[in-house]
Amino acid sequence: MNASWYEAAAAASVLGSAVVVGGGLVIAAALVWAVRLGIGVKRNEPRTPRSGEHPTLPESGPVHETHQRREPAEVPRAEETGRRLSPHELGSSGSRPSADQSRPRWDGNSGGSFGSGGPGGR
């Protein structure tokens, strides 16, 4: 081999490296352009909400929190009904409002902590 082969190979590797660097710069420029375009589009969008886009206050006023005791809705056993219930026969909720709506209170001799073993807060 003579020196001309080495010069040609070196020129090709330099040209290849230049193409890779140039391609990377083109891709980076395209990404910067796309981000700037997106920022401009977002900036020009109207800021006022459209009707129906956000929830509104009901006509009756603000809705307040409710407290109620619930009890489990028992599922009848297959022995009682003579057949198994289908999923659509079970209903939508696993509980129902309790007949007794009084708030449960702790026993006066208990601290209220489960498993404390102590006399409580006395």
Automatic annotation (TrEMBL):
Keywords for this protein: Membrane, Transmembrane, Transmembrane helix
Region (Disordered) residue spans: 41-122
Biased composition (Polar residues): 92-101
InterPro entries: DUF6479
Coiled-coil features, chain-numbered ranges: none
Domain of life: Bacteria
Compositional bias per record (Gly residues), positions renumbered to this chain: 109-122
Keyword field contains Membrane: yes
Membrane-spanning intervals of the chain: 12-35
Pfam families recorded: DUF6479 (PF20087)
Compositionally biased tracts (Basic and acidic residues): 42-53, 62-87
Membrane listed as a keyword: yes
Name this polypeptide is given: Secreted protein
Organism: Streptomyces thermogriseus
High-level lineage: Bacteria, Bacillati, Actinomycetota, Actinomycetes, Kitasatosporales
